[in-house]
Amino acid sequence: MTGFGFEPRKANGVLYYTLPYFELMGTRVAFTTRIGGKSHGVYQELNTGRNTKDPPEVVDYNRQRVAHALGLDGLQWVAGRQVHGDRVAVVTRSDAVGGTARQPATVGAADGLTTREKGICLVGYFADCVPIFILDPEPGREVVGLAHGGWRGTVLHVARKTVAAMQRAFGTSPSGCLAAIGPSIGPCCYEVDERVVREVEGSFPNPGRLLRRCGPGKWKFNLWEANRQSLLEAGLAPEKVISAGLCTMCRTDLFYSHRAERGKTGRMMAVLTLL
Ligand SMILES: [Zn+2]
After folding, report:
1. Is 7-186+227-274 a CATH 3.60.140.10 domain?
2. What local confidence, expressed as pLDDT, does residue 198 receive?
3. How far apart are the CA of 40 and the centre of ligand 1, in A?
4. Which of 51, 142, 145, 154 is 20 to 30 Å from the Cα of 109, by its Cα?
5. Contact 221, 187 (CB under 8 A)
6. Which residues place a Cβ less than 5 A from the ion ligand 1?
């Protein structure tokens, strides 16, 4: 589809990636970079992750700054506790009460979120794991979904299960959905061991397309393609699934990378809301 891809954008000094086509369809979408905040050292400079040693007031400032740059300060923000699982939370107005960009309302352990309520901001925090943005653009009954897939979530098919939850809760038709796989650790860099390989082999019908041997006991696992397959399995059309093709480990100038920076790093924020 023409123009259906990620593009960088800068607002109030905050550099983020967005999906112009999703925005045309009445959503706001963002995946932040490390540019535009006031964190120092290894967290420089737009760390939005609370589970780090960055002072919480700095993280809050950065989160607020992103919300302001996106024009989403006044909305109700909701996050799941990301546990590398496959639970998908269907977010309603009552779940979102009191949620802000600094401190989103939480819906318990959930690596997938979906809502059809306008003005609820779904948010997740990332540093190598795969953010998956899903939109059912059906006029009058639009639905959004946001999933978090590290290797565990990916082999548990959190992407497919998020689409299934949209279908179950809201009558979404998967063939009408659009999905975008955001910046995350790429097939160039994501090295895994035999333990992960076994899980991939048990979970995908054609694991050979997802794994490339790169040394004794070492493979490269293609999380982007795995999540794409998961979305196709959910019923999405191949031309409606795109990937940013941006590797967080290759591009530590732009992104935090848990793997490249050996755990001492910040988090980017993925935001998706119906306006
Ligand atoms: Zn890479």
Report:
1. yes
2. 98
3. 24
4. 142
5. yes
6. 186, 188-189, 247, 249-250
Distance from the alpha carbon of residue 7 to the mean position of ligand 1, in angstroms: 19
> How much of the chain is helix, strand and coil, in % rounded to 5?
25, 30, 45
Mean pLDDT to the nearest integer, 116-129: 98
Tell me the mean pLDDT in the region 26-41: 97
C-alpha 244/C-alpha 238 separation (Å) is 15
User: How confident is the model at residue 4, as a pLDDT?
Assistant: 85
Per-residue pLDDT, 108: 97
For residues 60 and 24, give the distance between their C-alpha atoms in angstroms, rounded to a whole number. 29
Q: For residue 250, report the distance from its CA to the centre of ligand 1, in Å.
A: 4
Q: Is the pLDDT of residue 61 over 60?
A: yes
- Ligand 1 mean position to 133 CA, how many Å? 21
Judged against a pLDDT cut of 80, whether residue 2 lies above it is answered with no
Whole-number Å distance, alpha carbon 199 to ligand 1 midpoint, is 22
Residue 21 pLDDT > 80: yes
183 CA from centroid of ligand 1 (Å)? 10
- The confidence score (pLDDT) of residue 3 equals 66
Q: How far is the CA of 16 from the centre of ligand 1 (A)?
A: 19
